[in-house]
Amino acid sequence: MLIRLGSIPTVVVSSPESAREVLKTHDLDCCSRPRLVGVGCLSYDYLDMAFVEYGDYWRELRKLYVLELYSAKRVQSFRYVREEEVGSMIESIAMSAKSRTPVNISEKFMTLTANITCRVAFGKAIQETEFKEGSFMNMIHEAVAMLESFSASDFFPRFGWIVDRFTGLHSRLEKSFRNLDVFYQKVIEEHRNATKSHEQEDMVDLLLKMVRDQTELAYGVDLLSRIQVNAWGIGLEPSLRECPKEFVPERFEDRTIDYRGNHFELLPFGAGQRGCPGMLMAMAMIELALVNVLHSFDWELPEGMTEGDVSMEEGAGLVVSNKVPL
Ligand code: HEM
């Protein structure tokens, strides 16, 4: 389906067959991401691996990412971080259980992810960063809000910037960039000045090592219209699975469909060249957390609530989350 979002022609892909066309058959022609204003500002003009134009520079970054930063061996080496953090989460849930206080599970999982990511990336817990917990999380939330914000320039490239200045989006974006820039600088300085053993190395240490060996790479630009793979819409297609809105995980039990990007009816991590390179890390974290949460407690709804009161409505955003916390 071809639609026009502002002045941008956009192809919406809503079936597994056309997702296969885009993510496999024509993968190489379709794997640059749109140059959105918020993304450009927060990624030092699209230099981040997730947003850089497809080409030699991306290929080189991706190789380092997959082979060095998120290889199976590296993911395994951070197992102790996952175990400690899941352990702390289980302990805090156990304390709530003891006092029969309802648990906000959305918040628990959010904190768990933030804690693990922070320790793996920077080598220390959020509370130990110079930014106090609140302001670090505020900074991240604001950056995410900026990445998913509606910018008129993205849909009306010629004049949208005027609207963005009036709405205040432009200055909010610049402030968010400045905060992140100061934070990165501090983290880099700290890591440059630290002496660590090989086992103590975190992601920033590895990246700094790589930067030393880096050579400059050129990359090409070509772009026609945007293509949006509607993985959410594909997941809700009734011809592909019965009662798609119902939570029936057993539906996948006797089928060969997996989530790794080989089956275009289930694409949580995308597929093709730009598919998610953090999949191993994500699955290691999710499996451990979920198994422990389910194994350690008998879950029930807070007093006075029935199953029908639980809202499964999705909130908007870059990462899909429950609109009403669980
Ligand atoms: C449940 C957790 C996660 C989900 C559902 C997820 C999903 C995705 C999706 C759908 C994409 C876009 C794929 C495409 O365009 O075809 C992506 C890209 C990406 N993800 Fe993830 N992801 C997760 C966790 C992670 C983690 C833990 C990391 C790293 C630590 C990570 C790093 C990235 C990067 C760098 C890209 C951009 C790759 C590129 O453009 O070459 N993700 N992810």
Write the layout of secondary structure elements.
Elements: E1 2-5, E2 8-13, H1 16-25, H2 27-30, H3 37-42, H4 56-69, H5 72-77, H6 79-98, H7 105-122, H8 133-147, H9 152-155, H10 160-167, H11 169-193, H12 203-213, E3 226-229, H13 231-235, H14 279-296
Parallel strand pairs: 2-3
Antiparallel strand pairs: 1-2
Helix pairs in contact: 6-7, 6-14, 8-11
The structure holds protoporphyrin IX containing FE (HEM).
Helix content: 40-55%
Q: How much beta, percentage-wise? A: under 5%
pLDDT under 50 segments (min length 5)? 216-222
User: What characterizes the major β-sheet?
Assistant: 3 strands, mixed
The rounded Rg comes to 22 Å
CATH class bucket of the largest domain: Mainly Alpha
Number of domain units: 2
Q: Tell me the number of strands.
A: 3
Q: So what's the overall shape?
A: globular
CATH topology of the largest domain: Cytochrome p450
> Averaging pLDDT over every residue, what do you get?
88
Organism: Eucalyptus grandis
InterPro entries: Cyt_P450, Cyt_P450_CS, Cyt_P450_sf
Protein name: Cytochrome P450
Keywords: Heme, Iron, Metal-binding, Monooxygenase, Oxidoreductase
